[in-house]
Fold this protein.
Amino acid sequence: MNKSLGRQLKKYRIFYLMFLPVAVYFIIFTYYPFLRGLIMSFQENRLLGNRPFAGLANYRFVLKDSNFLAAVANSLIIGLWDMVLYFFFSLGFALILNELVHRTVKQTIQTIAYIPYLFSWAVIGGVWVLIFDLQGLVNQFLSIFGTEPIFFLATPDYARPLIIAMGVWRSMGYFALLFTVAIMNIEGQLYEAARIDGASRFMQIRKIILPSLIPTMKTIIVLLSIGVLTHFDEIYVMVNPANRRLISTLLLFVYETGILNFQTGTASAGATLVMAGTLLITGLMRKFIGYDKE
Amino acid sequence: MKRTRVLVMLVVLLAISLTLFAQGQVDKAAVEVKVLAGVTGGKDDAENKLFEEAMEKGTGLNITWEKVPSGYDQVLMQKLGAGEQYDLIYLNQFQMYTLGKQGALMDLTDRIAASKVYAENVDKTELEKIQFNGKYYAGFNKLEVFPLVNVNKAITDKVGIDLSKLSTLDDYYQMLKKVKTHMEQTEGRKPYYPFFTYMPDIWDLQPWFSSVGLRRGVFIDANGKKFAPYVDPKAKVVWEWLAKLYREGLMDPTSFTGKTGDMRSKMWQSQDIVMDVDWAAWTGLYNNNARTAGTYPAKVNVVGLPGTKGPSGKYMLEQGGASLWAIPANAKNPDEAFKIIEHMATKEGALLLSAGIEGHDYNLKNGKIEYTEAGRAHAKDHGAPFPISKLFDLSVLGEMNPGVLESVSIGKRADVEVAPMGYANGELDARKYYDIMSKWMTECVMGKTTAEAAMKGAENELRTNKLID
């Protein structure tokens, strides 16, 4: 075995050498900080000097903290809704886009849908405030019908839907692009054969496009499941005292505890739990969709 | 021959000692004192370099003044957490408590007690405010002022309101009502919300809670029990008053979602509000901005008011949490770092931290300050608009922004009590307190629940989180 590994390494040494910088990069910037964070989660909250071993105290503290538990619930609700809506909206959008015949129109719509993905969350937050503020576009439109203005940004009923919609609006174009690329890779002969057999366009979508997209769907589902517990930026730009109870997520908890309060041990314990939760969700999702099967 | 030999030896000894002395001087000067600064310093990289040089000239040290342009708290945490060594760091009072408890800061008690500069320049009452368990872990960046009620008199004059007569919650309510009616019916600005209060940190409410003699934060009673006055049954009337303002359209709804910047531009730029609670310095800044825009004093003429009179006949205002300088426990040059802390408390340091850098922000003509264009743009603020040195005469800075001195002088009135919020001897997790209070009390002010229920909910959550006993 060792001989074989040695032979392999020797044979493909040039490729391994090419891979080396990438491996070093990940070790330095990903695995080392992660390891440090993991160690810190078992230490007392100290920013400088020696950090005495604290055992599981930070984990016990976090798991008893009502704010953390509320953040778990909020993260799951927002994350899972986002996951489902990102998936179906982007798939639907890609399928509709594929039906457009005019190339320029198709590309223009695709670009418009993709552009929000390039914006920072701060910009998107500003745009959404302009749209949903008390004197924003939506309320101006509603006023035409004599409707009283709705305070979307500070009404608890709208808190989660707005955050979820914000994410969908930003990312739909990106995921649709992934689906579009996969659709473009479908062999033209399959459509040709289907047409000869008299299959309608709807039938072609159902029997050719959707089955061909399964590998892409699996990849996107795994990517989305990785993001379920890691919503932060959109929350950070939109949180206020009126909606905090409903949209405060795990990473906001970690940020406020670790950065603003210098409780590094507690925040690291929270972050490690987020990591473990993400691994669990992703693992379950992989199993559920049969990601590793052919 | 013998005499010549002695002379030669003396010359050699002198040469050696001079060389060593010079070497010592070079070594001393070569010590690099590393400072991590938040707001204090130059306004941009170029000016920060000049600020660094001015600080070096003032202290005789070799200083690296690293000013973080934004997100200071995050940078401070990351740099210290990563083990980066600094000799001096800028921090706020809450951070001082947190890092002091963690043993991350050097104990400065003996240094401060022995400092002639501090004895001459710093008020003892100010020093007491930053004591933590009988010790000092930091020195001052500036003298903290206080937020007070700011009212645009240019608007209230139109409806014939005598501002000097406002002293109860109802007085202010009636004033806001009259202004709303005038602005909506006479000036056609509908809807007009005359009052903005920044709710996220329940920051600006002290002038109103003064009416019932309560202060923000958590305090410790005679039996050692922690309590939060804002959830005391006496506070109910103030929460109900705020809810009434919101219900009747007297409070700007964006108080819950907007930022302080929004509030300020509504005050002086668009005159969308007539009243807020903001720093005493902002009374002047509102007017100065309006003067630049050509709207002072016809459209904007902001004046500071002490708020509402309490049961003891006094007005209670809240002093801002101290902005401080501390020496990290791993600092290499604590002596030099303390020298900088001392310099900032002197009159010379005060001039640098307010007016700025001579030759860049101002020039001296016949002993008087003449501001350059850069100096005027920097509005006499390089970290300390109100320096900590009690020997520093603010009048040397020249003409102040309109209304600012009057606002600041309110804090010195015999019937006004200015004190910091309750930190429960440094034990309070201020961030958690703000979140819990603002979350519950926003529901009350927005009318989603009663004041009683919101106060009970907040009290329970404060207790569950061990913020109160």
In short: Chain B touches chain A at residues 73-74, 77, 80-81, 83, 95, 98-99, 102-104, 199-200, 253-254, 256-257, 328-330, 429, 431-432, 435, 438-439, 441-443, 446, 448, 461, 464-465 (CB under 8 Å). Chain B has 19 helices and 15 strands. Residues 147-319+409-464 of chain B form a domain with the D-Maltodextrin-Binding Protein; domain 2 fold (CATH 3.40.190.10).
